[in-house]
């Protein structure tokens, strides 16, 4: 009797729903481009059982039965639920929660829903930043933000753009907006060659405007918010009178580590140039001019233009096909409690005019950790180094002007290997190549910036945010003018100068925020405190009459 009862129990177990475990496997991909999604959480609803997709987006788990529901979730994507049923392979495509993300706007006090903002603001997201090749962060605003004008001040590599938010607000004072990266105000250290010691005592020898944002790697940026009016920029006071550009960098997401390499290379060239006379055409013009003015042509070598070649094309000599490249290796991931993002990048850009170049190295680390349900800590840190060789404007006439006015019968070098020049009846025209290469204008910059912050929730709905931000910068500007002799134009004494700038900035912020959602209504109240200090020092040295041009 007991034996039959035991057999009956075993036969009823499957009917009761026990021991019907089903092995489920599949792949999770991005609905936008079909790429595999690692780090997606696959959870059986109502249980703590689940799995995480691997680097290929694949997962595998055991479901307790046909009625089990699998829940697929990933930060920034819409959660999707699928009933197992008769399936053993379940492939899911997750879509970005774009409509939800677009409603959140970064402001000076934190974040707000876009519908709650009464002031004027405009957002530039990561996809827009990837829309074109940019080497400086301020280039990302060109044509991408309504009410924001962006004009290039120079074609030199690493040079700044002139940014205006809602037009020109002042004539004499600075009109550039205030830049804030992850809550820390960007300290530029100067925007002209004179600020870095790259001009002489009279302010001559000016160089192109130097961008404080050229030290920032654009590939680390997640989005930018441009705050335009008083209601949006009130927290920054007079500093924000020309608008505020709030920049948010990328952060890690929960899931397996995602390693990304981004590479870019490009070729820059001058597509359009002025049509100038070659040597044969110049000789024909000289003979025609002498005939028209009834003067004797004192250039015997021009008597038979058919014997002449093309001569020197000075535009081709000063312009070059300039390569640019950028490489970045980044990693991001973490758990539900700790997320991280680290990146390293290198960028090199040569100028289309010979003798100009720009290099940048940068490292970034962003860390978020939930130590307790009521305590969160975070770290933002960025270090960058830039080195530039700048072009000299040389008073009113620059290298380009000289290239258009120098005749084609002059070679670049004479038979002794020195720069050739023009001397005729007391008239001297300097060699454009010499102007571009003989002077040294070098600028090296180092920047360490970031913040350490904590969010403490002593009671429900109340958050205390405390943050210490810092920006430590140093620069070294070197200027060297050698001796030369171009006909009756010469420099008998060389000049050398070095200027070192150091700046330090720190800020302490404390915000106490209480927010509630009651039915269809929401409200928040904030009490804030902020203090900051900025200091700098400059050390410069100057020498002239050095023994030779080899000694700087």
List the helices and strands and how they pair.
Elements: H1 2-15, E1 22-30, E2 41-44, E3 50-52, E4 58-63, E5 69-73, E6 80-83, E7 92-94, H2 98-101, E8 104-107, E9 110-113, E10 121-124, H3 126-129, E11 148-152, E12 161-165, E13 178-181, E14 184-185, E15 221-227, H4 230-233, E16 244-249, E17 255-268, H5 279-293, H6 314-318, E18 322-334, E19 338-350, E20 357-372, E21 375-389, H7 399-405, E22 422-424, E23 427-429, H8 432-437, E24 440-456, E25 462-481, E26 484-486, E27 489-491, E28 495-518, E29 521-544
Parallel strand pairs: 1-7, 13-16
Antiparallel strand pairs: 1-4, 2-3, 2-5, 5-6, 8-9, 10-15, 11-12, 13-14, 15-16, 17-18, 18-19, 19-20, 20-21, 21-24, 22-23, 24-25, 25-28, 26-27, 28-29
Structural description of this entry:
With 552 residues, this protein is mainly beta. The chain has 8 helices and 29 strands. The chain has helices at 2-15, 98-101, 126-129, 230-233, 279-293, 314-318, 399-405, 432-437; strands at residues 22-30, 41-44, 50-52, 58-63, 69-73, 80-83, 92-94, 104-107, 110-113, 121-124, 148-152, 161-165, 178-181, 184-185, 221-227, 244-249, 255-268, 322-334, 338-350, 357-372, 375-389, 422-424, 427-429, 440-456, 462-481, 484-486, 489-491, 495-518, 521-544. The longest helix is centred in the middle third of the chain and has 15 residues, at 279-293. 29% of the residues are buried. Residues 1-19 and 201-206 have low confidence and may be disordered.
